[in-house]
Amino acid sequence: MNSLKSTCVILVLAGVLYGVYVTLNGPEKSPSSSLSQQQLTEMQPPAIDFGQGAANGQPSLPPLIDSPPAASTIPVVDQQGIAPTRDIPAYYPAPERSVPPLVEPVEATIPETQPSGPAPFATEPSDPNAGSSTYTQPTYSQPIEPSQPQTAPATPTTAATTPALEAHKLKQAWLLVERHVQDNKFRDALAELSPFANNTYLTPAERQQVLTWLDALAGKVIYSNEHHFGEPHRVVGKTQTLYEVSSMYKVDAQLLMNINSAVVRDSAVLVPGTELKVIPGPFRAELSVAAGELTLFLGPLYAGRFSFTVGDEQPPAGTYQVREKSREKLYVGRDGRQLAANDPANPYGGWWLDLGNNVSLHGSPATAGGPALGCISFSPQDAQDLASILSVSSEVVIKP
Length: 400
Prior knowledge:
LD_TPept_cat_dom, transferase, L,D-transpeptidase catalytic domain-like, 5-stranded mixed sheet, single chain, Transpep_catalytic_dom, cell shape, alpha+beta, EC 2.-.-.-
């Protein structure tokens, strides 16, 4: 019995010793053999393409299209103050491209619809209102002094980058304008381009291209009889007049008369059921005395431009409102000199718009020569157009 137990113990010990031998003398196993080559590759950080601009420390930008050429059939008001022609081109010039376009070239045909009313077009490079920011010093239980004062970027750097940024914005706007025109969304195209009307960072060529398109778009959207501001106004009842309709929309009755001349013969008599094109007013004006130019806006939309001269009554800069409109106004100079309303030498001409504080917009004398009198003088035709566009309470901003 004892011999059997001894034999079993010997066999167990032999097995254990054999296992130890194999473990100590066997081949070593590679620690990385459990990971495949593909898994090792996937553990690497992903490669990120920041574009070509990353080499210069700036993000790359999407490809852009160039703005349309300056060629246009719309003349601009000349320096002599001649009233602009109201013709609207039958097409918008297709943009010339120096880079591959994102969309197919568009040659949008526009119906040859002339505005029945005035479609004034003129230019104003006024300085845009610079945004401002304020900083409120936080309150602490004990005053904290910064270790290093913060300094604003140098002015040359800001001035050097702003024109490039504005040029980029303009190129992006051209792309959207082209798409809107292709989709017959002319009001959207006008809204997209209107912020560049008085952008001082544009080059002369860029500004001319912008104004060429703005003039045509404004003539079609605002001054034609096409409906681009929602549903037309439908005349109800037998007593409604054009003056009542114009009061509802805060525009001048004469402007609505001009726009709807095809269906309205008498502003005091409207046929029930007549559909009128209406626009939400009032218009506003921005004047640059230095440039001698007035720009009209209808809300955010560009609405035309005029040139003017300043007489012996220099207008102070500020914000005004049209208080009164009058035809053939008696002129009374600062020296007490008076000129009758029908006097050819009357500097007010045929129209006079009072802004208050001895500031006014008016026409020009029928006779040339002599010293420039009055305040802000426009050509006879332009003064008539302004009188039919600006309504009482319209805002007028005068800049130096």
